[in-house]
Amino acid sequence: FFFTGSSWRALAYRSRRPRNNHLERQTCCARVGTMHSIEIVTAISVILAVAVIGWLCKIFAKSPRLKPGSYKAVTLIKKKVVSQNSDRPTLFLTFNTNVSAFPTGAHVSCKFVEEKKQVIRPYTPTRFSPSECELMVRVYPKGAMTQHMARLEVGDTLLIKGPTGMKRYGRAGPGSLTKVLKNKDVDQHFKTILMFAGGTGITPMLQICNHIINDPKDHTRCILVVANSTPEDVMLYDEIKKLPARSKGLIDVKFTVSRPNDDWKHLSGRVNEEMIESLCPPPSQDVVSAICGPIGFDKAVSSALEGLGHDKSRIWRW
C-alpha cells in the first residue's frame, strides 16, 4: 500500500486523539446487532418464500388439470352432507383437480363404469379453484350416478372431464349468452335474464349471478326463481338470500316450494304461467330465460314461458 503525506497526517491525528472505547464498543455492537437482525429477517423471508413456492408446486403437481376431451381419475378429498332429507340427501363433494379457468355456464362430465355399462352425467361446479372442484349432488333413490357418488369415500376416485357443455355467459360481453358450436358461435344479448332453478339446477344460475356481481361493467337485471319440493330441500339458502344485497339490487330472488310447512314464508306452488306472469316482465328482445332442473321441471317451465309468448329461441335450457 502507498500512503500520501495527508494520509500519514490523518493517521497520526487519529492515534493522538482521545478515544472513548466504551462508546465505540456500544456503536460497534449496535451495528453488529442491526446487521444480524437484517440477516435473520432476510433468512426467514427466504425460508417462507421457498415454503410457499414448494406448497404451490405440491398443490399443482397433485391437482391434475381437467381437459374437455378426455376423462381423468380425480381424487375425492372432502365429503359433506348438507341436507337432512333422508329420502334425497344432498352432498358436497370436493375433488382434487385444477379447473381455475372455468367459463361461466360450463359444467363437468362425470363417468363411472359398472358391469361394463357406462354412466355419464353433467354437473356444474359450485366452487372451483387452482386445486379443487366442488360439486353439489342430490342423491336420488334410483339415480345411478348419484348413488355411486354417495358411496364414494375420501381417497376414492371418479372420472371427470371438462369444461363441457355449449352454453357460456358473458363470453360476448356483459348481458350475453353464447352457444358454442363447431362452425360458429351464436350470441344473444339482453338486459334482463329470467332464471328458473329446480333443485340442484341452482348451480349454473349461481355461477351467472356471481359473474354479474363480480363484473363492475355488467348491469344485467336478474330474476331468479328457486323451486323445490319442500323447505328442507332448498340448497344454499343462506348464500342465495344474500344475492340481492351483494348485487346492489340487480338480482331479485324468489323461493317457492310445492309442499310448504307452517314456517315457510315464501311462495308456494309449482312454477306455472300465473306465477311467471306475476314475477317477471313480459316477453321482449331485451329478455331471455334460462332453465335448469329435472326433466319434468324443465318441460313445465318451458311450456309456461312459451304460453306467455316468450320466443322459444330465447329460452336457454341447461
Automatic annotation (TrEMBL):
The keyword Transport does not apply. Gene3D superfamilies: Nucleotide-binding domain of ferredoxin-NADP reductase (FNR) module, Translation factors. CDD domains: cyt_b5_reduct_like (cd06183). The chain crosses the membrane at residues 40-61. Keywords: FAD, Flavoprotein, Membrane, Oxidoreductase, Transmembrane, Transmembrane helix. It holds the Pfam family NAD_binding_1. FAD binds at R121, P122, Y123, M145, T203. Its cofactor is FAD. It comes from the Eukaryota. The lineage of its organism: Eukaryota, Sar, Rhizaria, Cercozoa, Chlorarachniophyceae. This is FAD-binding FR-type domain-containing protein. It comes from Lotharella oceanica. GO terms for molecular function: oxidoreductase activity. The keyword Transmembrane helix applies. Residues 69-170 form the FAD-binding FR-type domain.
